[in-house]
């Protein structure tokens, strides 16, 4: 039987490929983005408590009320934005689901969707599977900022959606007020909607603040903001996140969500609701990760790589184009095998797999693991 693939150009994601290689080689895995340490034991106790209390059957489709309420409180506290937890907040099975459901809710056959290139790897498949056409606008090098003139030029009568990501994976670039204002100007008199991937919202450095698209009145009315508890509470394997959007958009979003997963694990939701009653548990995250970024960057200075410290996220990019012509994918594989440190080649995030000779390292690891990795990286032969 021959199957005509709906995603012929797609293979297994780089995160699976590199994590497997790291495990096969016994390498330190700084490739796939996940913390190398566990979450707060109190969160585990809460999950245990709610599981044993018998909250193990289907929960509400839109998410447990107490958690939706907490998310709304967090948005008020951090961004000064009032959200109605009933009609504007939905809990889902990870930001990946939020992104997919938002695209599926609004993109129809032949609609154009602007993607800022490079982009997280799930965006383009979500667009294509829903009959949309990705229109790629390259980010500006070397800082991966947005050239808004290029975005403006890419907009046509068919543009339905713009997908954005701040803090940005893989570069860590954090949007400025000017980015928000300019996007708002571009979309305000049109039917264009926005999906904003803000999974690293609580991880920004050097005093920078994450500017959620919720904070801009024009964007707030047009945007699906997608978030993830995995990043914020060190539980990436739980696959639990949320989508914030105005009532009309949320209504359409939930029509998709109810047939994708219907709902997400109730005891996790009750536990997170209790855990979030103390805002320091998410407000302290930038300081927590800044120490790791600084430690990692300090060590990188003693390696042949060149880099600019990441503005946000838990990734650090490094360049090696001044040293070698080696393909970034090959180099990432070779380093995993030869020095036992795994990274992600940045080319995988580009629509045309362009090779800028950049690798991405995840520094969400214990200090000792980072120091061990740096010791090995110092010895690389490029
Ligand atoms: N968006 C970005 C930019 C990411 O880096 C990730 C991966 N962690 C996701 C979305 C997916 O988040 P989740 O694991 O909650 O589905
Ligand atoms: N977001 C993670 C990263 O960028 C990977 C998530 C996944 O493996 N699906 O590394």
Automatic annotation (TrEMBL):
Please give the Pfam families that the UniProt record associates with this protein.
Aminotran_1_2
Q: Does the keyword Cell inner membrane apply?
A: no
Record-annotated Aminotransferase class I/classII large domain positions: 28-377
Q: Which cofactor does it need?
A: pyridoxal 5'-phosphate
> What superkingdom does the record give?
Bacteria
| Molecular function as annotated in GO | transaminase activity
Which residues are the signal sequence here?
none
Q: Which InterPro entries match?
A: Aminotransferase_I/II_large, Kynurenine-oxoglutarate_AT, PyrdxlP-dep_Trfase, PyrdxlP-dep_Trfase_major, PyrdxlP-dep_Trfase_small
Keyword Transferase listed? The answer is: yes
Could you tell me the keywords of this UniProt record? Answer: Aminotransferase, Pyridoxal phosphate, Transferase
Q: Could you identify this protein by its name?
A: Methionine aminotransferase
Q: Which organism is it from?
A: Algoriphagus halophytocola
